[in-house]
């Protein structure tokens, strides 16, 4: 039976960021199981009618869902759900907030791999010590009780220490501008980590260690690659089923 977007009884989205709100509404219905893997989403015109939004807004939301690996478009057939994100995502963040958190990750991917490469070239001994102290604090924070913000704060401190070591104060300044959103995204990520396996926690720690080690060795290419690898997987962990990365 063909499913409709109205099935969950959602009222039209009216927030300024309609694309984000619509992304969140569709994501909610995928997480809840209303739309399951293999299901076809309603057409663009049906979604427009259900939520009172324009086609460009619908296309923006679908494009973001596609970029996150949640849906695929088959020419001439429509848009289909590929997989369901982890259920705990809905308990850690409002679905309408997820698009903003992932957009923050996109900005970080554009900034932080470059900052890490510069840090490897330019870091002073004192800056290297700061990066390693932040790494130790992050490792220690993994034992914090559920709900504690310490892991998110320690995670942010590590990334800020790397940016500060780049020798360009604008990198650290940009992260400071993103501080609130980064902290929220990191809190969601660490909440999912706590709900995951010990292997998942180990991988996350190893990603940070790889960045710090490349900076310590003054391997600019390696530091940039390690940071890019970490941020890519950090973003994917938000939308992938537990244990996939």
Automatic annotation (TrEMBL):
Residues 16-84 form the HTH gntR-type domain. Keywords: DNA-binding, Transcription, Transcription regulation. Signal peptide: none annotated. Gene3D superfamilies: GntR ligand-binding domain-like (1.20.120.530), Winged helix-like DNA-binding domain superfamily/Winged helix DNA-binding domain (1.10.10.10). SUPFAM superfamilies: GntR ligand-binding domain-like, Winged helix' DNA-binding domain. InterPro entries: GntR_C, TF_FadR/GntR_C, Tscrpt_reg_HTH_GntR, WH-like_DNA-bd_sf, WH_DNA-bd_sf. Pfam families: FCD (PF07729), GntR (PF00392). One of its GO terms (molecular function) is DNA-binding transcription factor activity. This is GntR family transcriptional regulator.
């Amino acid at each position: 039976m063909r499913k409709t977007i109205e099935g969950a009884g959602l009222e039209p989205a009216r927030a300024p960021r309609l694309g984000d709100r619509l992304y969140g509404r569709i994501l909610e219905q995928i997480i809840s199981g209303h739309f399951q893997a293999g299901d076809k989403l309603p057409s663009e015109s049906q979604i427009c009618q259900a939520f009172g939004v324009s086609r460009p807004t619908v296309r923006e939301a679908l494009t973001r869902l596609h970029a996150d690996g949640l849906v695929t478009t088959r020419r001439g057939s429509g848009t289909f759900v590929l997989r369901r994100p982890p259920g705990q995502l809905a308990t850690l963040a409002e679905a309408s907030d997820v698009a903003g958190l992932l957009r923050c990750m996109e900005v970080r991917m554009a900034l932080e791999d470059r900052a890490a490469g510069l840090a490897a070239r330019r870091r002073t001994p004192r800056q290297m010590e700061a990066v390693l102290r932040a790494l130790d604090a992050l490792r220690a924070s993994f034992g914090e009780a559920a709900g504690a913000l310490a892991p998110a704060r320690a995670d942010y401190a590590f990334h800020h220490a790397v940016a500060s070591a780049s020798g360009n104060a604008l990198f650290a300044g940009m992260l400071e501008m993103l501080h609130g959103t980064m902290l929220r995204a990191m809190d969601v990520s660490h909440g999912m980590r706590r709900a995951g396996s010990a292997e998942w926690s180990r991988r996350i720690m190893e990603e940070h260690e790889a960045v710090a080690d490349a900076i310590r060795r003054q391997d600019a290419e390696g530091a940039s690659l390690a940071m890019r690898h970490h941020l890519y997987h950090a973003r994917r962990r938000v939308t992938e089923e537990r244990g996939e990365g």
